[in-house]
Design brief:
mainly alpha; Alpha-lytic protease prodomain-like; Alpha-Beta Plaits; 3-stranded mixed β-sheet; 3 strands; elongated; membrane; Cation_efflux_TMD_sf; cadmium ion transmembrane transporter activity
Length: 325
Amino acid sequence: MNKQKNIILFALAAGVVLMLTKFTAYLLTNSNAILTDAMESIVNVVASGFAFYSIHLSARPKDQNHPYGHGKVEFFSVFLEGGLIFIAGVLILGKAVYNIFLPEPLGNLLEGIGLVALTGIVNFALGTYMVKQSKLLNSLTLQADGKHLQTDAYSTAGLLVGLFIIYVTGMAWIDVVLSIGLGLYILFSGYKLLRKSIAGLMDESDMKLVGDVAAVLQRYRRDDWIDVHNLRVQRYGHELHIDCHVTLPNYYDLNKVHDEVSAIDQLINKGLHANAELFIHADPCVPACCHYCRVKNCPIRSEASRVDIVWDKRIISKNEKHFHE
């Protein structure tokens, strides 16, 4: 967790420096498109500050009032970042429309291009590093902040192309068109972050993680794990909460059922390389399971096994045994 905090603090410091650099470029050039990029940098700084707080809070242990931990605060961080990006996009579009009717003269474009190019390189390198670390540390906040910096770098690249064309051709109207395009792109980026955060706050099952769990279970499944269904995954910060139903032979005693459930728990934690808390409901098999059951020498089998069902995210997320697959 300390590593996450250090990364966010570095991103926050870098964001302040880059923001000041972009506003310097705007003051040099009077370019509306550069102002667009600078305004988005304000969002980077505010978002990194809240991201640091959310990582600090999510690291707190579970307590009586928060039995699932504090990890969901990361979704609030992503929501704030997405909301700020969306608002920045609206303001950027408003400024661009204003300059259609009241254009402003441009100057010192070459110096502005150099400063903006420097900020784009730093943002892309820092964003890529944060996204890679988010996968290793299983941090949604680092991922959102890193992707935002990458998005900022991509928009900066488009901005540089436009500024260079303006410098070569002298067609100042391109500045307004470029600002409108970047504003729309920023709006869409903000919407995607808002959508992701709301899904997490509403406990929407993470289907990508469901697919990852299915792949682990399919690869290492045991014959007496007859069926897995109604599997759901929610992310709480760096922790995962998984619940599912597992069908086991109905003649297993309670100790054997406990051993199999524990084996599934350990397998998923090891296979996902994450801290996952599982709630597994054990179901007894019924005769309708026999046609896809892999158990050899089963003493109660009513028909031969004739179907081999591959566990994928579609299959194991269904809230029913797989009688008709």
